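Intended use. Records like the one below are meant for learning the mapping from a protein sequence to its folded structure. Do not use them to infer anything beyond what is encoded.
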Amino acid sequence: MFRLYEVLLYLAFMIAFPWFLIVGVLRGKYLTNFGPRFGFYKGAPERHDLWLHAVSVGEVLAARPILQRVRNARPDTTVVVTTTTISGQTLARNLFPDATVTYFPFDFSFAVSRFLDRYAPAAFANMETEIWPNVSRLSGQRGVRMLLANGRISDNSLNHYRPFRRLLARVLSFYSVILARDPVDRERFIAIGAPPDRVEVSGNVKFDLETQTRPLAIRAELDKLICGRKVFVAGSTVEGEDELLMARLPALISELGCFVILAPRKPERFELVAGLLAASPIRSVRRTELGSAAASAGLQVDLLLLDSIGELAATYELASAAFVGGSLVVSGGHNPIEPAAAGVPVCFGPHMTNFREIAASFVGEEAAVEVEDVDELVAFVRRMLTDEEANRGFALRARMTVERNRGAADLTARRILDLLP
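Structure written out for the chain above:
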């Protein structure tokens, strides 16, 4: 079964390699991390207590409170953190300076074996639902005690997993603990073969995200640009959403006299969105240009393009309204907890399948608004920027919803500590 999987994996990689090569050359992605992803590392082998895997930015942020609690209880814990994306890697290096940070190996047996030889973890905590057969099999065979944290299985994933239940049952049998976000996810893990006695409901660790405490490096310059205006933050926007917003922002800025912070989700879109802004009537500046631009006398702009990694959370404390992207188009949505925890009235579109239970919690508590299209989004922003009473109500309910749902990080950290030697 595992041999067939690996043969298919090699075939898939060979078919996809030309695409990796083209994107790597054009966008500077993938090629720079092929070495560690194939298990080639510099330096001597290390031994670590814990291997923590977080795919990208959202998972890295979710892992932070867990790792803090593990380290509070066991300060000498050594950790190797892996990510899959470049943006996740950048953020992990910033958030976990005392951990070893590298890329997650491709799921080829030789690459996984080289990773395990290099870092020799005693336990493995896998954030979200990254179920890799060879990583699970080879880690389990070496005695690595394994935990799946904040587990979620979407509607689409469930349908895709069902035909591979036999393989998944074998893979999931290597895990000592599987922590599902809610009872629906627990039943779905069992349906695809997880041992029922190893699956428990933990809640969603993303509710334990801490509000940003690290000061924004550009705060003084940004305050001068904002100049007392109310702020609308459009965070984690994706292709299709930036274009929709760009068509409506000039009128919104003119009508309300507000300042906008626009933060595309993917770094490879920074240049494209900057080009869209340059062709629009919106007076804008890029965050990466702000140092030199702010030095110019009388700089007047209405929009900041946040073309950086790891700074979005710190901008929410400036906002009077926020939109969480990836949700107006079919992309799965992004996490609304960060702006809500900062006490910002938040809206998102109808496509929140990756955060269905979080979105339902906020909407059910009248702590956020689901908008159907860009017209409703603009109407929400207009209301939040002009109706102080409504703004205060949403801000309060958002904070209360986050507080009521906290606790998953504590449970996850305890289960990790149980696995450590």
